[in-house]
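Demo today. Your pick:
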Amino acid sequence: MTDNLPHEIFGDIKERYKQKTPKSAEHNARAKHRLPGGDTRTATFYQPYPVYMIKGKGCNLFDIDGNQYIDMLNNYTSLIHGHAHPKIIEAARAQLENGSVFGSATEIQYMHAEHLCARVPSLDLIRYGNSGTEGTMFAMRAARAFTGKDMFVKMDGGYHGSHDFIEVNVFPGSGTEQGADGLPVRHVEPGAPKSVLEDMLVVPFNDLNALETQLKKYDGKIAAVILEPMLGALGMVAPQAGYLKGLKELTERHGVLLIFDEVITFRISTGGIQKSEGVTPDLTAMGKIIGGGFPVGAFGGRKDIMALFDPNQPNAVFHSGTFNGTDVIMAAGLATLELYDQSAVDQVNALGGKLRNGVNQAFKKAGITGQATGLGSLAQIHWRLGEIANALDSAEGFLLAGDLPRFLHLELMNRGFYSANRGMLAISTAMDETIVDKFLEAFAGALEMLKPYVVEKAPHLLAG
């Protein structure tokens, strides 16, 4: 994407953004002297520069220039109760006054574990880390240790953090075409060793036939299938009816473990997609909302698999970390989970449905091809119609849209709404129908502003 686009609509959007965020521009210029690109988290970068936030309260964010935004991102889904919820602050403060972490076993660790295991069908035992990346990394290590096998199957476009073995076919690009065998061409993301391809197989999401082909071809060599039960970063692509149950049946038939990455999708019900869909994986990776706004990761599952991490056992799998199960995180996380009961789940899921329906209606009214996908309280904006069943379908919409998602994001910020620059939206319990209505009004206005560009430069996006 180019930064110097000639169209006057894009120029107007960018200029208004710059006019309201001059202090953010100054801070970004300073940050670039010590942070590559001025940031330390690729997902939060966007052009011409990101705003610098200084405060969050409920569903509101405040930047360093004094602008206020409704937060439709919630730190990429991790803040299920919005910012600075008083009960979560109270729990964290009470623990901080006694100490943040002790380098020892503590009561709050098993209390948090008891709560999670009671909610999530697959969890007999659980261990903690510091990120979703660690959660998936150690779930995969558990699968290797238990099965004695090294190969895995993942989904094209599946995102499981940033450890090397999972940095295969994460983003759309040269690796998303189909090969001669009808499967996605495998590739590693920049910086990951090509050697990981020896043990990482890739199949399209929502395609049981492709998975079965690989399970048969590599019979006796595969440790596990790992997937997000709804593709997250690449488009909030929901599982088709029967897909997850079919996965469970296939993996059981071929003697392969099934790992669900529920870092994002745990919020879908009180016990994740596995509970709402009635499909119990062998292992589950978790993160985000279970830490109450602090960095956290976890992995757990069947007792016979997780017993491998028991230090009392001979040849136990080593798993440690300076901040694993940090007390202040466990305290904030437990408070968050207790607040996120069935009533709260129903609240945010209803708002998410209203949000997706409203986005679809706004596209239709504007005469522009587009739709929202997702489940529960999660949504993703796509600039295409038709079924979106896998990463290729999702990537097609991004390619068709060109720079439109980027400038929709900036225009929504100009109108007081903060979202992911790729079009991802996440509801929090701090929101109500009024907030969703305000967002939909802003979204419809942004589409109308962008429509002359679509007519002139991207007529392929006009609805027939």
